[in-house]
Amino acid sequence: MLVVAGVVQIGCNTSGAIKAPIGAVSAGDFGTLRETIAASLSTVDEKESMLQRHKLVLMSLADGTPESGAVAADDVYQLLRTQGVNEGAEGGIFLLSEDAVRTWKGDPHEQAMAFAHLAAFDAMRRDWGNARSSASAGLFQIRDFSEAIVKGRAIPTQRGPLPQGAAGDRAAIAVEAAERGDDPAYAFVRSDFELGYLMKAIASDQIGETGERDEALAAAVSLAPRLGPLAERVRTGDYNTVFFVDFGLGPEKVRAPYDPVIALYRPITRSDLGTLAVTVDGRSEGDVAIATDVNRLAQDVRWAGYEDLRRAKDNFGNALIAGGAITAASLDNDTGAAVGLGLIAAGLIQKATSGADTRYNELIPQRTYIAVANLTPGALHRVELAIVNRPESQLILPVVPGPTDHSARLHYVRLPGGGPGVPNGPWAVSGEINYANDVTGPIAPAPSLDNLPWIIGGRCVRTPNADVLAEYHANGLPRRYQLEDLYSWYELEGIQIAGRLVDAPVGRHVLEGGTWLYTPAPGSAGFARLFGAVRAPYRPKSPPVAAVRAELVGPPVSSPGTLLSLTTAQVEASR
Tell me, what's the pLDDT at 194? Predict the structure, then answer.
């Protein structure tokens, strides 16, 4: 029985090193989750590798640091495109080797969403060709079980009445498989993944493939007529900016209460057809219809996973147990008893491993919107996003740059909220920029001590360079301090400057208690969160940096300070 108990654990939710708190995602704490997931990759089980890497891609996009998930994105794409990873997922090998099918690739809807996010990742890097490839890969055929459902509902069972809706469809498929002893009847049909068609259309448009664009747009509108206005804007080229907007938490994967062999998806964020209101610089861009509802995909029988095979395995286990009992009883000798007990043990193992695998990606959103807009090239715009009748979804992006070349720019945005009882934070609606950064520059009119580095009492977290140093001098930093001094201060404080010495994935930002200095992508929730809140002053760890801070602004106080404007005479005196 010890063997059986050990195998039972395989079928449970073993997302292992990371069980992402849904509250953190809803509150927009993407940086902490991203760093935690990245740190776990070196120790995660190989069979969980893609699960954790897909999570890292999602949190890197949400945090406005897509490059920190670049390697993970490549790995996810390669694994999803690899055939035979789970050899034995069909037929007899599945029955005999549970370990062969335990490398997590996700249920079909998770794979489709992974390809869509990979397309968004490529598009953020202006690689529209690969974006089209990723979007196309997510439009794989799905299985239509209509015949199996009809047959299954006509088969009497000892399990009682079948539940209604998607749960009943899944149960019918499993019953039909058990009765027939083989795969249920199904046919492959075209995908109904609206998001995949939209991303393929936009990517095709950007590389001049108008035929593919029109074909993908027609498919999207035929599936969801509500997408007609968006499709027309894409077809006519009336846009230079794309917003890929995720909201909420995808459904939780659980074992069915009436039969643990069957996996069901239980919604966390409720579904509705609420539109996304988009405002640019105070001007409404209109409301955008929902592109894809992941709750719908997960509960649609056409997107079902391996319920039929798990049912067959459970049935096979019952047969082994029964056969073992008969063998042990009919053969009155030690050999018969040993054979019978062996069959019974094998049957118990088969049943123990036939329970639905409830591993799933907790970070997948509940819904996705695609919005387009025309932004003034080279200008910085204020964009407001909110789902109608979902106040917790409101997000103000204080800085969204208009593209400066001929290709469109995509911004990935993960809206806050969507979890049970989790409101959006003040940063989401502040619309403010409280810290100087590499996109917006100084925080206050010069001269002001707030334009100095945060680690010595200011509010600047820009990447040090000769131009930034000149501005520091103009704002009160004594001229005896040069660029190498700035670098040494960050080194003494254990802070790594993104791109300076090594091209490594960035960790959590120093403003949030991390050890990295960088500016997230403008137009992301990560940018809004990082600079939209006022934080307690930095407390230097090293004596040299503490001495410089004390020289300029005095010791740190416990609460955030006000802007420290200086007169020209004070600046001159500080030199």
Answer: 97
